[in-house]
Amino acid sequence: MYRVAIDVGGTHTDSIAVDNRGQLLIAKAETTPDDLTRGVLASCAKLAGQAGKILRELLAETELFLHGTTVGTNAVIQGKGPKVGCLVTQGFRDIVELRRGARDTLYNLKVDYPPLLSPRHLRAEVRERVSYTGAVLEAVDEQGCRQAVRLLKARGAESIAITFLFSFLNSAHEKRAREIVREEWPEAPVSLSSEVLPRIEEFERFSTTVLDAFTTPSVGAYLKTLNEKLHAQGFRGRLLIGQANGSVATPEVVLTRPVWTLSSGPAAAAPAGLYFGKLFRSKNIISVDMGGTSFDVLLIVDNEAQVTTEEWVGPYRLAVPLVKVRSIGAGGGSVAWVDPAGVLRVGPQSAGAAPGPACYAKEGLEPTVTDADLILGYLNPANFLGGERRLDSQLAEKALRDKIAAPLKVSLKEAASGVIAVLVHQSAEAIRRECMERGADPRDFTLIAGGGAGPTHAAFVAEELGLSQVVIPNLAGAYCAFGWLRSDMTLDFVRSRVMASAQADLQWLAAAYREMEEEAKSTLGNGRVSLQRLVEARYYGQFHETEVEVPAGRLGSREIKAVTEAFHRRHERLFHFRVPDMELEFIHYRVRASLLMDKPVLRPRKAKKGALREAQAGTRECCFGKRSVKTPIFAGSQLSPGARLRGPAIIEEGITTLVVPPSFHCQVDRLGNYLLEA
After folding, report:
1. Where are the domains of the chain?
2. How far apart are CA 57 and CA 539, in angstroms?
3. pLDDT tens string 229-239
């Protein structure tokens, strides 16, 4: 039986399958933006071909299908979704539009206001009021609520978000309003803030709920289509969907809160990075994933990936727990261009899957990073993506010569080297910024590089940062897809109430944690369920909370003291200072429930007969800086565990190419992964 995982990127859709013996299959297919399921099935069909099967046979033998989707994120970024109508407490119609009152560019008085997912004419007020204690001050005006629903329907609303004040303490009014919506307008999708994000902070809760209402139709339609197509091809196993916190959930759970899938694609780097960090005995990891469109950076400190609720999707606030990933527009398909000042730029725009880089010969005219890699000799034009695509060097040269070399008055090789230098600098700068925010020195970390373009450029990035160790998984081309294979089914349940640590209401806390634990067990069902109690606390006067663990079982003054001390330690580790005499505020209370999944055990690579030279497929002229070097080319599949080689060298894997610069040497581990050391 197989386990299959999918990661849909902007350029390629990656797939990976592992059988009961630990044998890996990896494939890529072009992403198909008009219908993402076509790219998913095309990638799976390539997996089937590698196994000597047809697609129907592979899916019939698949027990678990894990899928990271960008459908919701794409809908938000592209603004392609329903018109969202809001039912709000009277007097609080404009919270989602007022936001936090700050401009993205503080001194620009003419800054464009971000487009609204729920414009003002689609926000209707309802008379009702719950106090800050959860007590009902005024019951729902049911007749007024019905009129509001009819008004929103008449004005063209297509999805409804219900965002009442203090509903996170008492959800009865929101639930009654939903009943009224269903009576008046049965087919309308409805999102409740008390279910999407039952926590304090109105703007964050309202914005996240509007995002949920906006993404519900697209995510729901996509999952329905995907499920139907998989079943039509013989799949009878279990389908799980990736979430922004780096875990997976059933489609049924996802459909109750599709907003949790936003920004989920890069989150799979967390379980992947933790796996390879453990494999190479490193607890401090810089995990990077460079695909065709973006460069994603994730920091893992002391074997912990940071989870945050401080995130934005485009101009919209998203406050669900998600893995903190820094993304920039820098990848294999990133377009190189010269700005009006005559400065060479790379990205953020990408050629994507269509038309793709100029060398794809698909009518793409703009020079890209892939075109530069080809000109510098890093890529084999006859063996790109395992020989599935032949690259046209002449088209790459023409695009780079016309758009970069000629305007800058430099040679073709200098132009290509400049493109890669800019890409490397931008990538290194993204890592520096992420480390700087955490008070970390990148030289204390191991760089783990995934993505189709990651292995080609990772060592150059390491050189710029002064890193001495780089890990390149042999499955780097499907790095995030592999991350889904390593994930658990994790859900967060949250409650909110502001209280001082010294006057904590222990009875309320115990009841809240018990309630969330029962809810978690009911949702996840039977199995190896791990429950973790957490609290988000802060020093008085702070705007951001720090998450710390709460002991299980009875909660007394001793346990609260232990939580307080743990907060000081964690705050010092994250921000390099503590204020031990200052009282804390407890804000959010969370139960993180994980249904632990069986993880695949990968099969060691078999030793190959013959010496290192038997794996060498030839040589190629490659440019490193200003030098052109005759560089040995190795077939990655023919390198035995323990093999060592000195740079410069090129290692061609099935769907990616690894570049070993002259200053590095490379060793192959027992699983076929690569360790580069300066």
Report:
1. 2-75+220-261, 109-217, 266-294+329-487+601-678, 489-595
2. 58
3. 999 999 999 99
User: Which residue is associated with the tokens 């709460």?
Assistant: 550
Amino acid at 231: H
Look at residues 357, 358, 366, 370 and name the one whose alpha carbon lies nearest to residue 290: 370
Residue range 489-595 forms a domain whose CATH class is: alpha beta
Residue 29: how many CA atoms within 13 Å on its side-chain side? Answer: 21
Contacts of 594 (CB under 8 A, 6+ apart): 247, 488, 489, 490, 529, 530, 532
Instruction: List all residues 6 or more positions away from 176 whose beta carbon is below 8 Å from its beta carbon.
Output: 140, 142, 145
Helix (H) or strand (E) holding 334: strand 334-338
Decide: 211 and 76 in contact? Cβ < 8 Å: yes
Q: Output the six-digit token pair for 370.
A: 């892939």
Domains 2-75+220-261 and 489-595 share a fold: no
Residue 632 to residue 646: CA distance in whole angstroms = 10
Q: Are 238 and 65 in contact (CB under 8 A)?
A: yes
Report whether 139 contacts 180 (CB < 8 A).
Answer: no
Kindly give, in sequence order, each residue whose CB lies less than 8 Å from that of residue 397, ignoring residues fewer than 6 positions away.
375, 412
pTM: 0.93
pLDDT at 480 over 80: yes
Q: Which helix (H) or strand (E) holds 75?
A: helix 71-78
* pLDDT tens-place string over residues 515-530: 999 999 999 887 789 9
Task: In whole angstroms, give the CA distance from residue 344 to residue 210.
Answer: 40
Q: What six digits make up the tokens of 267?
A: 């989150």
Yes or no: is domain 2-75+220-261 CATH 2.60.120.260?
Answer: no
By C-alpha distance, which of 568, 570, 571, 588 is closest to 580? Answer: 568
